[in-house]
Fold:
Amino acid sequence: MKTILVVDDSATSRLLFKAHMPKEGDYRIVEAANLEQAMERVGAEHPDLVFLDYNMPGKNGVEIARTLADAGVEATCFLLTANTQQSVLAAAQEAGIRGVLEKPITRAKLEQALTEAGL
Structure:
């Protein structure tokens, strides 16, 4: 079973993410609302894949990806965002983020990201 961590300050967005997950997959979803919770979940759950919302209070998704990498986390990261400006995409790539899942999330977009992640 693969563990997927969804880091988003919006409970509604996390709920929509889970609603769009393919039902037939062997996945377990873990949630976090901020950097501190994300670090706790990573330590306890060792996720295979992390989806990071870009627009969050405190640190944004790119900054959280850098924090995870600095902590030695080897999970594949994807950015969740409606902001697809070139500067955001470039920062995501520089931070080692594998891809961008553009909001609003759909099942097709999520399935594509899972395929890109090899899940």
The chain has one domain: 2-116. The domain at 2-116 is CATH 3.40.50.2300 (Rossmann fold).
